[in-house]
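Hey, I was hoping to borrow your eyes for a little while. No rush at all, and the record is pasted right below:
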Amino acid sequence: MEILEDGELEEIEEATEPMEEKPHQPTPLEVLSKYIEADEAVNQQDLLRETQEEFINQILERFMPKFIKIPAGHYLVGSASPKGLEPPLRKVMLQEFYLGQAPVTNDLFDMFVRETGYATDAEEAGYGIVFEGRCTNKRDPETGREIFSLTRGTIARHVSGASWRHPAGPGSSLEGRHNHPVVQVSHHDAMAFAAWAGKRLPTEEEWEAAARGASGQLFPWGDTWLADLGNFEAACLGGTSPVEHFGRKAMSPYGIYDLLGNVAEWTSSVHAGQADSPEGRATEKIYILKGGSWITGSIVTAAWRQIERGNYWANTIGFRCAV
């Protein structure tokens, strides 16, 4: 590397035209995002539904995501009795950050795609991974009637044409699902959205701290498992639900919604057990997901983990953003 003397550096600086910095143009989501204190989130009142004005307010709220302040401090993460991929219990120190009160919805992802023309990995590949749980709800294309069925177990298939717009394949759509979490998104897709929105993905420790609170409770709502406070297999919804469907009873001590069940959520944390590739070849990183999903059939605590490569996507996976 060539090192310039002070005089040479001055001459170069004098001869070089200063480059004009283009002012940052905030995206619509940066402008519409709200940053609020945890106390405000916990104590906020549910929206009324009786008047047209309140109905309009509810529509606007869907495009104004809230980000809740999580205070700096020491937090318990992991499990005292690890199962599966769960790490052992430990205490971590975290700096103050903000976490999305809810997962990114189809509404918000649609805004991103309209603004950027972005094509997801599933759309580029031409297929999505579609899970069918024990409980399924399907619409008869001829009669339009909902058909409920119960099967022996969960199955997964590669379905041509499945994407975030068509979560279960070409016959499915986002009709009535605008406030559901977006699915069929890879880690790449989640990172692209976060960068556009001026946000990032949370680390595993941040996600878990926001779910467990200062006391380190096992579940967002406390230390007792309550299957009816999340969209798990037992709910028999056969798919995703609105991000605030289970309401204030299911939120975390900081006022965060939908942390367990519905969709597993990408984090920015890379799984430490990832093996090196042979011959030094680069491999797709393996990331940690949190929260379980609508096909989860067992008890899932905030310490639960799923790991997937960044180029994986399915109708059980979504994400939320942090700042």
Observations:
- The helical segments are 6-15, 28-32, 38-43, 52-61, 106-116, 121-125, 187-196, 204-212.
- The first helix runs from residue 6 to 15.
- Confidence is low (pLDDT under 50) at residues 1-16.
- Residues 27-318 form a domain with the paralog of FGE (formylglycine-generating enzyme) fold (CATH 3.90.1580.10).
